[in-house]
TrEMBL record:
It comes from the Bacteria. This is PIN domain-containing protein. It comes from Duganella vulcania.
Length: 112
């Protein structure tokens, strides 16, 4: 049986401290060594964007938006995915044959 990867969700206040001491790369190294995944929610990014001090905000955003972290999708996205799956199952004729995902992908991968 395959061992599940440890997934770690860090509080926004902790991200601020990680950024303050510039420990983002250290965290990535330790997580990699422990085979752990660091999870980031859109809410965390929004909370950090609200930090009034520009220098602190920029450092924290750099720490929390590293490409090595796993970005979780917002809850409405997950709910829409479930709805889409049901539409495909129950009303396949409603599905667009060749959808254009350009705008969807732009919004999906836009962190900040």
């Amino acid at each position: 049986m395959k061992k599940k990867q440890l997934r770690i969700l860090i509080d926004t206040n902790i991200w601020s401290e990680i950024a303050k001491v510039d420990a983002g790369h250290d965290l990535a190294r330790v997580a990699r060594k422990a085979s752990a995944g660091i999870l980031v929610t859109p809410t965390m990014v929004e909370e950090i964007r609200a930090i009034p001090d520009r220098a602190r905000r920029v450092k924290a955003l750099r720490a929390v938006t590293q490409p090595t972290w796993t970005r979780l999708m917002p809850e409405p996205y997950t709910e829409c995915s479930e709805l889409k799956a049901e539409i495909k199952r129950l009303r396949p004729e409603w599905v667009i044959a060749n959808p254009n995902f350009k705008e969807v992908n732009r919004l999906r991968y836009d962190w900040v």
